[in-house]
């Protein structure tokens, strides 16, 4: 079988995020991607996480503490639109990888979801901050209210990114209803 969406996301990120590298989880949620990033960068690496829900920050922190990875991460209870502001204040101007997993917090309030304007603002900041060879991944969901609109806006942005600076791709299981869509941006 070919890899599922989350497996493929982690594979693409693993190939481009070096040990000792710097990564961002723009939507921490339950902290699964954050844990993956913190594990991958090693003790010399740094990972910055964002989420607007206190519950997500707490769940993520607990997950990292349980696996003794908390010292590799800095968590912000704030919108990913403030990414540049917070990273610059930590002295970080460039990143190797940024992960966005859109939609709502699993086992949380399904009415609190990512919003197209904030998502695109944050994605623009992350794409700009990527080192050459760095990667931004975004998993898009269409099964919840507003999800299709957000996915369409992200796809439109990806299609219009300057091909001289970025390569953008998509990956999706086709024979499944409302299958999530993995998209990625690589900086040349
Ligand atoms: N990557 C997560 C994981 O591994 O468990 C799952 C993320 S979940 C699908 C989406 C998350 O995005 C929710 O926890 C939600 O609170 C968060 N979110 C929504 N709007 C946001 C924003 N403007 N900035 C940061 N996080 C946001």
Automatic annotation (TrEMBL):
Keywords: Methyltransferase, Transferase. One of its GO terms (molecular function) is methyltransferase activity. GO terms for biological process: methylation. Gene3D superfamilies: Vaccinia Virus protein VP39. The keyword Transferase applies. The keyword Transferase applies. Pfam families: rRNA_methylase. It comes from the Bacteria. InterPro entries: MnmM_MeTrfase, SAM-dependent_MTases_sf. This is Methyltransferase. The lineage of its organism: Bacteria, Bacillati, Bacillota, Bacilli, Bacillales.
């Amino acid at each position: 079988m070919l890899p599922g969406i989350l497996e493929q996301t982690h594979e693409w990120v693993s190939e481009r995020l070096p040990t000792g590298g710097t990564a961002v989880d723009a939507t921490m949620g339950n902290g699964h991607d954050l844990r993956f990033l913190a594990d991958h960068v090693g003790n010399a690496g740094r990972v910055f996480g964002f989420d607007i829900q206190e519950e997500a920050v707490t769940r993520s922190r607990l997950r990292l503490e349980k696996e003794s990875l908390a010292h590799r991460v800095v968590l912000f209870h704030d919108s990913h639109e403030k990414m540049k502001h917070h990273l610059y204040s930590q002295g970080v101007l460039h990143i190797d990888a940024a992960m966005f997993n859109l939609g709502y917090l699993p086992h949380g309030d399904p009415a609190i979801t990512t919003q197209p304007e904030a998502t695109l603002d944050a994605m623009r900041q992350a794409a700009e901050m990527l080192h050459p060879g760095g990667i931004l991944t975004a998993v898009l969901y269409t099964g919840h209210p507003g999800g299709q609109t957000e996915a369409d806006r992200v796809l439109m942005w990806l299609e219009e990114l300057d091909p001289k600076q970025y390569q953008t791709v998509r990956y999706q299981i086709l024979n499944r209803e409302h299958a999530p869509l993995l998209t990625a941006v690589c900086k040349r």
